[in-house]
Design goal:
The complex is a heterodimer of chains A (726) and B (304). In chain A, a hairpin with a 3-residue loop joins strand 7 and strand 8. Chain A has 726 residues and is an alpha/beta fold. Chain A contains 17 helices and 35 strands. Chain A has five domains: 102 residues, no CATH class; 190 residues, Rossmann fold, CATH 3.40.50.410; 88 residues, Immunoglobulin-like, CATH 2.60.40; 213 residues, Class I glutamine amidotransferase (GATase) domain (Rossmann fold); 87 residues, Immunoglobulin-like, CATH 2.60.40. Chain B is an alpha/beta fold and 304 residues long. Chain B folds into two domains: 241 residues, von Willebrand factor, type A domain (Rossmann fold), CATH 3.40.50; 32 residues, no CATH class. In chain B, strands 5-4-3-6-7-10 form a six-stranded mixed sheet, sandwiched between helices. Chain B has a two-stranded antiparallel ribbon with strand order 1-2. In chain B, strands 8-9 form a two-stranded antiparallel ribbon. In chain B, helix 4 links the parallel strand 3 and strand 4. In chain B, helix 7 packs parallel to helix 9. Chain B is elongated, with a radius of gyration of 22 Å. Classes of the chains: A alpha/beta (726), B alpha/beta (304). At the A-B interface, strand 3 of A face strand 8, strand 9 and helix 9 of B.
């Protein structure tokens, strides 16, 4: 019999001598006695009497036995010869090797350790043992099938394992250890029902066991009792890691990045180096200090426009593990947007429309807006600058500006006209349909907006019933816009909103190929209406601005591992996607690949609904074709932030989740030499034997039983003695 | 422990204290003791209860005009008020020790039980005679006081007060005696019931003050038989009832020195009483309670 903790056995044996000494010694019996005049008493020395003969032999033996049994129980004994070893032919074990291949496994030194551990684990297996190898990150991939292993002979098996080791390569995904373990364990447990000769099921988990791994799946449900988990952790040569990730900012013209440092990082000083599309550094690197275990978020400084470069990504310099040090960023195109204004430039007059325009655009949360007055008070007219995509006219448009406006419409510009008078509308007649009339409307008391097209992008934000009520806005006077129905059929104009009298209130007019003119039949200043004073006004005007002058290209930020539907992003079934490595696949190719992978034979599939999984970080360009037009969407995939949390979880984490784990840290694999290895293996098997046999339970139970019998016996003797005294 | 035997009571007409102590009601117990004691004595009618005229005093402002002697006023044209003798002819204060040392007892009842039986009997007897009786309980200081009165309910109050349990961490009769001296502004009778195991000096100082005020004093020292002879089998861990001090002692070793010390102490107490002219009665708890009444009346007779 061996002991896991022989120290306790020694204590138990030593304690066994205590009852013998106590039985030999007897202290003079004393009774407490309350007394009134203790001060007259002379203290005596307590007398101990030695006895050469021992009273109550059986009682003493019982006490010795109890102490010895309890001591032995704590020493955790086990019998070596009883347990059949793993190499016995009768015992067949099913082993699943679960290898982590998430992005954090890309760290230097881990790859070699994984290969070594896989080989070692396979070497320990017997001929009858069954093996399967599964790699996992956010999903699982089977690298070696159990059937294939069983069918192969020993020569083929080593080739199979070498194949597995060679094909193993970390990907860029996040780590869902919980899900992978659950799937593998369920599969192992299922086999116990199917194959009766399997007596042991082992799940060998090879992972860096990083803090960012997702173990949530293990929290629900019970772990199968017959599946043992053996955790073999791997660690990089250099500990610690710092990662950089993109953080969405409320303002689209700002770029925020977060630098997260793992708890075991030593380095604290880093540099952030922004780069442009060609990969060249833009500006000076930014110095960042991040303490271990901390994270820091910072806003990248705006790039000097004089350089003419835009930042498309940022690289973290100073970290040993480069896998999460480089991110792509959405390009900021128009950090400051310019809005042209035609009309009186009286900013401080609350009776003018310019006053309200200034206040709404100043309060824009997303970006800074500059209003450029195109007409001065002295009558000088400025041409519309080339970078202005949105112009607001609140008064008569001077004839000198009409040519510039024409070019503006050709540049896909949008003109918003709020007509305080009939003349304002008439001054733009060049851009309006021929059969168009305008006159002052007769308003009895006030007019209201009665019909609104909530499907139009301008009002779509108000389509919810809570915001759809525009009836509280009163119009004291407005203009009657009369369009011909023929033009309407041609698509030249469309009514977005109507007054309660049925006349158009807001009209969209197409100008030329791509120009757009939005016409309000009333001004928003207080003399015309309550529009500028209502809560609907700022969001409506902001909406017009964002439609007319989008701040940047359509850029979507995703995480690696996300599944997207490119067809729906570009609203087309004829699309293609360019991957970060510049390779391109069309929708048809992707659909074919998906069909082959799933084994489906039907040719009909909805190309618009076809899905693409983002396997690596970088820029994806999705191009949709509609007729002759092409429309592109830029998508940026970044590494999951959890992958940067690389400090190792305590092994006890799995035990907390109710999974008994036998851990073998593999931090110094090269330094373990033969004898030490055997010792380590011997210790492991001792633990295992002891855990299986559980002798300690019986020993403790027997010890407690002895104590109970001893107590009853001793009290009976005491009672008998008391009876004799009486 | 050997059980101390009660002295033979068969030869006397007194009751065995064990029997008397088995009566739970203190009032009834007192009645039994007193009646037992009186058996054979001539029942004397109430005497000394009179409203006898004592003296005249000049009327001063604040005196009750009811007591002005109008006839004298008519004769002398001066206002005098008539003073009368007190309603009772004896004012007696029973000062009883209620310290924790009194809770010792080896006979099935404690010294506390015994001493309050004495106090109750005395109170009952004096009350019946129409005397004013008061009570004061003390440990290291005076705990409870019932002023000396003769009026309905007085006996009941004394009985209820005597039901108090023992308390305190030491015994100091000096305070109690000093307090009694202050309360008795006329010459009176003070009965001290205690084990008097406290240092003699404290007791002596209090007694001196009381005697100095002219009061008659009778001291009952109540002791348990074991306290006198320490007849206990085998060693014991003795725990002081007041200080909680623990001493391991074997009576075989310590008996001789103990008896020597306690005898010297008791003699010193007695000597103090004799020196100061106070009646001293040592009562062991296995003696009949009536003996205490007898000693009291004897002392009272001498003092008259």
């Amino acid at each position: 019999m061996d002991f896991l903790a022989p120290f306790f056995a020694a204590i138990g044996v030593a304690a066994a001598s205590i009852p013998i000494v106590l039985h030999m010694l007897r202290r003079a019996p004393t009774q407490d006695m309350p007394f009134s005049v203790v001060r007259f008493l002379k203290p005596s020395q307590p007398k101990l009497t030695k006895r050469s003969n021992i009273e109550h032999w059986p009682l003493m033996l019982l006490r010795i036995l109890a102490l010895v049994l309890i001591g032995l129980g704590f020493a955790r004994p086990f019998l070596r010869e009883v347990v059949t070893t793993e190499s016995d032919g009768d015992v067949v074990q099913a082993v699943t090797i679960l290898v982590d291949k998430s992005a954090s496994m890309r760290r230097e030194g881990i790859y070699e350790q994984v290969q070594q551990i896989v080989r070692e684990t396979v070497d320990e297996l017997g001929d009858q043992d069954q093996l399967s190898v599964v790699a996992f990150s956010d999903t699982t991939v089977r690298l070696l099938d159990r059937e294939k292993w069983t069918a192969a002979n020993s020569g083929e098996r080593s080739a199979l394992i070498e194949g597995v080791v060679d094909t193993y390569e970390p990907d860029w995904m996040s780590t869902n250890t919980g899900s992978a373990m659950r799937i593998a364990a369920d599969e192992l447990a299922q086999e116990s029902q199917e194959r009766l000769n399997i007596s042991r099921r082992r799940l060998v988990l090879i992972t860096d066991f990083q803090r960012g791994s997702d173990l949530d799946e293990l929290q629900s449900g019970n772990w199968p009792a017959n599946v043992e988990v053996e955790l073999k952790t791997v660690a990089p040569k250099v500990k610690g890691n710092v990662g950089v990730s993109f953080v969405q900012d409320s303002r689209v013209d700002r770029t925020r990045v977060r630098i997260s440092s793992a708890g075991d990082t030593v380095q604290q000083e880093f540099q952030l180096s922004p780069f442009d599309a060609s990969g060249a550094a833009v500006g000076q690197p930014i110095k960042v200090t991040v303490a271990p275990g901390q994270r820091r978020t910072l806003i990248l400084p705006p790039v000097d426009p004089a350089l003419g470069k835009s930042v498309v990504g940022v690289e973290l310099i100073g970290d040993e593990h480069p896998f999460d040090n480089l991110i792509d960023l959405p390009e900021v195109e128009n950090p400051v947007v310019k809005v042209g204004h035609i009309g009186p430039s009286s900013v401080n007059d609350p009776e003018s429309m310019r006053y309200y325009l200034q206040r709404v655009l100043d309060g824009n949360q997303e970006r800074d807006v500059n209003i450029v007055d195109l007409t001065r008070d002295d009558g000088v007219v400025l041409p519309i600058p080339a970078d202005v995509k949105f112009v607001v006219a609140t008064d008569v448009v001077p004839a000198g500006l009409l040519d510039s406006l024409g070019k503006f419409f050709e540049r896909s510009g949008t003109l918003l006209v709020a007509a305080p008078s009939v003349d304002t509308v008439q001054s733009l007649s060049k851009f309006l349909p021929v059969n168009f009339e305008v006159k002052e409307a007769k308003v009895d008391d006030y007019a209201m907006l009665a019909y609104i097209d909530f499907d139009h992008p301008l009002f779509s934000a108000f389509s919810d019933a809570r915001f759809a009520d525009f009836s509280s806005i009163k119009f004291w006077q407005h203009r009657n816009l009369v369009f011909s129905e023929e033009d309407r059929a041609d698509g030249d104009w469309s009514v977005i909103a109507k007054f309660d009298s049925g006349t158009p209130a807001i009209v969209d007019v197409s100008v030329g190929e791509s120009g757009k003119l939005t016409l309000f039949a009333a001004g928003w200043q207080p003399t015309d209406s309550q529009f500028a004073l209502s809560t609907r006004f700022p969001p409506l005007l902001t909406r017009v601005l964002s439609l007319a002058s989008p701040v940047q290209k359509d850029q979507l930020v995703q995480t690696v591992g996300d599944v997207i539907r490119p067809g729906e992003l570009v609203s087309s079934a004829d699309w293609s996607i360019q991957f970060p490595d510049k390779s391109t696949q069309t929708a048809a190719e992707i659909a074919t690949l998906a069909r082959e992978a799933s084994g489906a034979t039907s040719a009909s599939s909805d190309l618009q609904a076809a899905t693409v999984k983002l396997y690596e970080p970088g820029r994806y360009i999705i191009t949709g074709k509609s007729g002759d037009e092409e429309y592109s969407v830029l998508m940026i995939a970044g590494l999951a932030a959890s992958e940067s949390q690389t400090e190792m979880l305590p092994v006890g984490q799995l035990q907390v989740l109710g999974i008994g784990v036998e851990s073998e840290t593999n931090e110094l694999p090269g330094e373990l030499i033969g004898a030490e290895k055997e010792l380590a293996n011997g210790q492991l098997s001792s633990n295992e034997l002891e855990r299986r046999q559980k002798w300690w339970r019986w020993l403790l139970l027997a010890g407690l039983a002895c104590l109970i019998v001893e107590s009853l016996w001793a009290s009976a003797i005491e009672r008998r003695r008391a009876a004799e005294v009486v | 422990m050997s059980t101390p035997q009660s002295p033979s009571v068969a030869s006397t007409s007194f009751m065995d204290p064990k029997v008397v102590m088995s009566i739970k009601s203190l009032e009834l117990r007192a009645k039994v003791i007193v009646n037992g004691f009186r058996t054979g004595l001539n029942k004397s009618p109430k005497h000394g209860f009179s409203v006898e005229f004592s003296e005249y005093r000049q009327y001063t402002q604040g005196d009750d005009p009811r007591f002005i002697d109008w006839k004298l006023y008519a004769r002398t044209d001066r206002s005098f008020i008539r003073l009368f003798e007190d309603e009772t002819n004896l004012r007696c204060y029973i000062v009883a020790d209620f310290s924790n040392s009194m809770s010792f007892g080896s006979l099935g009842y404690t010294k506390h039980d015994y001493s309050r039986s004495i106090a109750a009997s005395l109170a009952w007897m004096l009350n019946r005679q129409g005397d004013a009786v008061g009570l004061s309980l003390f440990d290291e200081k005076v705990r409870m006081v019932v002023p000396a009165r003769y009026r309905p309910g007085q006996l009941r109050r004394i009985m209820v007060t005597l039901e108090e349990p023992t308390s305190g961490s030491e015994t100091n009769p000096e305070h109690a005696l000093e307090h009694a001296a202050r309360r008795l502004n006329k010459r009176g009778f003070v009965v001290l019931i205690s084990d008097l195991l406290a240092p003699v000096e404290q007791f002596e100082a209090g007694l001196k003050l009381l005697r100095g005020c002219g009061h008659d004093v009778i001291v009952f020292q109540v002791l348990d038989p074991v306290e006198l002879d320490l007849k206990i089998d085998g060693p014991r861990l003795f725990e002081d009832l007041e200080t909680r001090q623990k001493i391991y002692a074997d009576p075989e070793d310590t008996n001789a020195s103990y008896i020597q010390k306690i005898t010297a102490h008791n003699e010193a107490v007695q000597a103090v009483c004799e020196k100061l002219g106070a009646a001293f009665v040592r009562t062991v708890t296995n003696e009949p309670l009536e003996m205490a009444l007898s000693e009291f009346l004897h002392a009272r007779r001498i003092r008259r």
